[in-house]
Specification:
Layout: E1 2-12, E2 15-20, E3 26-30, H1 33-53, H2 69-76, E4 83-91, H3 92-99, H4 112-120, H5 125-140
Antiparallel strand pairs: 1-2, 1-4, 2-3
Helix pairs in contact: 1-3
């Protein structure tokens, strides 16, 4: 799913702040403009990916012409002096494959009897570990 949203870039003393006014004031930052642009793509991809996974509605993007930098700067108490609006684009599905859904190999040790019993029952070790970790993580929140 290819998506494009306007982002407001505000130059600050220590880099750039990036705000997506259409997405509940979603924000990120970077020390350099290149880093801020990269972080904006990552931030947008993460937000849209989360919305997809949780079946949340995603607002339509505004046109760049409808973004008023001064109003946004005043709302957020930022200096609008060195600021601009830029469309940030990302293919969420492709980005997720590389950054969010990429599997990593883990080596672990279990007792031999447990391994044999699980193999006998045709248990998928990876799936069981993922399910257990997700359950544990949700309990910690």
């Amino acid at each position: 799913m290819f998506s494009a949203y306007p982002a407001c870039f505000f130059k600050e003393a220590n880099g750039y702040s990036v705000i997506f006014p259409d997405l509940n004031w979603l924000s990120t930052c970077g020390k350099t403009l290149d880093q801020a642009l990269s972080m904006a793509v990552d931030c947008l991809a993460g937000y849209l990916y989360s919305c997809q996974r949780e079946n949340e509605s995603i607002p339509y993007p505004s046109s760049m012409e409808n973004i008023n930098l001064e109003d946004i700067a005043n709302e957020l108490e930022l200096n609008s002096g060195e600021s601009f609006v830029n469309m940030v684009t990302v293919d969420v599905d492709e980005y997720a494959k590389v950054h969010f859904e990429k599997s990593v190999k883990k080596t672990l040790t279990i007792p031999a009897w447990l391994n044999a019993a699980a193999l006998e029952k045709g248990i998928n070790f990876s799936q069981v570990l993922q399910e257990a970790l997700k359950e544990r993580l949700s309990a910690i929140k």
